[in-house]
Amino acid sequence: MSGHRHPESVSGQEVREASVPMSEGPSQLSSRRKSRPVWVGDVQIGGDALVVVQTMTNTDTADANATIEQIAPLADLGAEIVRLAVPDRQAAAALPDIIRRSPVPLIADIHFDHRLALEAIRAGIHGLRLNPGNIRDAAKVSQVVQAAKERGIPIRVGVNEGSLPPLPTLAGGELPPPKAQRMVDAALWEIGLLEEMGFQDIKISLKAFDVPTMVTAYREMARRVPYPFHLGVTEAGTPGAGSIRSAVGIGILLAEGIGDTIRVSLAADPTEEMPVAWEILKSLNLRQRGVTLVACPTCGRIEVDLIPLVNQVEAHFQRLGKPITVAVMGCVVNGPGEARDADVGLAAGKGKGAIFRKGEVVRVVSEEEFLSALIAEGQKVIAEKFGEAQADDLGTAIKLIPMEPHQRPGRAVRHLAP
Q1: Which of 123-132, 162-171, 195-204, 288-297 has the weakest average pLDDT?
Q2: In 225-339, at which residue ranges do the beta strands (DSSP E only) sit?
Q3: Residue 151 in 3-state DSSP?
Q4: Residue 326: its pLDDT value, please?
Q5: Do residues 39 and 50 touch, judged by C-beta distance below 8 A?
Q6: Less Cβ crowding at N or C end of the chain, within 10 Å?
């Protein structure tokens, strides 16, 4: 990847007094904070760009083949930027090969040793993340800034609550400042160094595990600087709890118009981060990728075994990769009304169900046709919206793939064979 652009600067006063309106379409909760755009390779962050999704590899970066093998599927899942740990010279030595083969721009994650940042820049990296908590020598930071400036690559000032600079000596009885303030102060220290050198291709992150701390830090920083923000809840946890924590922290800020790029940090394979990141953006009407599935939670009124159907509908339309909304509802009473904004949907009842578009019923089908009829109607929607040829007529009904034994919801249990 290559290519860098240098937008005009935006003053702090403009940041406080202006905002960038969102594009027309589904409603958003708040207008976007105005920020000075930067470019990571050919990907714009901030300004009028959409919120960018990124992730990080967990391979040994020194193993170029393993690292590229992980980057490729991440890009396929929607990662627009990927960050790499560069903890030693062996990792730095592998960067030229990785950069040459990567389908997306790459960021080198640097801690402790500024020389690794210099090696990454020489290798052709598209961006840097520096931690002001563990690279505190201003002269060393200046060397990195000068090299980045010459190559036209941005630097993320990446603050993490777990590696803040040491506290200064406190006077007797003096309490330490709140952690959110310490995070902001750490970032402002390094930003000051960069600005003194005339460097403005800056991104900022203020990551914490504690969501209120993280949110407070970003809100305060948004009042202070014009630079784009990379959002994330650090060390969020396993996919279950970590996805929720990330959605709350990132989602609060995005709903307030704060944030230009996001990373969901999970203790899992990085491919598991991508669906969560995109669902956060989709839920706030900020980006669309793949199917958005509307499905009822089931209740005592339901008369069909909805869960296997929902799972297969989602899997099918995810494979197609088109940004359409599909609804699978468990009864004909509220189904079309509750999912009236869906491009296509099914309101399932005992023995038969209604296929609808935008809340209007287009036909009634038997229970055996639920899946095939919904897929066929969805293919028509895709053809109409995206101008693509329809798949061949499905002909016969598609049968549901049996699930492992499970408790059927509501009155569906009555229809089990004796």
Answers
A1: 162-171
A2: 230-231, 261-262, 292-295, 325-329
A3: helix
A4: 95
A5: no
A6: C
Give the pLDDT mean for 359-375: 92
Instruction: Report the side by side order of strands in the sheet with 352-357.
Output: 292-295, 325-329, 344-348, 352-357, 360-366
Contact 7, 37 (CB under 8 A): yes
pLDDT in tens, 130-157: 988 788 898 999 999 999 999 999 999 9
Handedness of CA 100, 106, 111, 113 (dihedral sign): positive
3-state SS, one letter per residue, for 23-69: CCCCCCCCCEECCCCEEECCEEECCCCCCEEEEECCCCCCCHHHHHH
Residue among 287, 223, 224 at smallest CA distance from 250: 287
AA letter at 65? N
DSSP-assigned letter for residue 294? E
List the beta bridge partners of residue 328: 295, 346
The yes-or-no verdict on residue 5 having pLDDT over 50 is: no
Instruction: Enumerate long-range contacts of 240-246, CB under 8 Å, 24 or more apart.
Output: 242/266, 242/267, 242/268, 243/276, 245/209, 245/211, 246/276, 246/280
Phi, psi (rounded to 5 degrees) for 395: 75, -90
Q: Go through the domains of the chain in sequence order and give each one's CATH number.
A: 12-283 (3.20.20.20), 292-415 (3.30.413.10)
* Residue in 360, 332, 326 with CA at minimum distance from that of residue 344: 326
pLDDT tens digits for 326-341? 999 987 667 777 778 8
